[in-house]
Design brief:
- The chain is mostly helical and 183 residues long.
- The chain is built from 8 helices and no strands.
Amino acid sequence: MRSPQILSCLVIAVMGSLMMNILIHDGMDHGVGFDVFLAGAGDPWQLFINNDLVTGLWFMCGWIVLRERGGRVMDVVAWVWMVLWWGNIIVAAYVLRAAWQSGGDWSCFFMGRHAGPSRQAVPSFLVRTGSGLAAIAVALWLARSIAAVRWAGIPTTGYLLGFLPIILTLLLLAFPDRPAEQR
């Protein structure tokens, strides 16, 4: 079970450093990449690459929907929305979460609650509190960012579509869906 965790951490580190590069050298004041993604549709190769990425992300969303089936609908909505907006850094975060929840059991890793009696872990008080505080911080940053672009159409849409699922996911982590045996 260490392989998915190591690979996920590596992907998160690489994508996180690339995101820091964007923040330092370009910023997000033009819609969190939404305009760049749309502009690339004019080039046939970029359109192919964009569609290849999105197709792979849809496959991942299918696994998330199947794995989370029977749980809170908002969990599924938040994860799918984030995967489709933020891409493989969220895929890596979900794989890391699934590995953590599974406790080393591959069937639980792939199937979640459908693998049999639930052995899924519930986040600690520290993780839940940190997630709640992070949700508040992201919401404040989002409000400041939208105010900075004066509600301009594409940047505001990019901000809202990009950061609302992050806030939702952080809130869902702060208030986790406990397995039925723990309710």
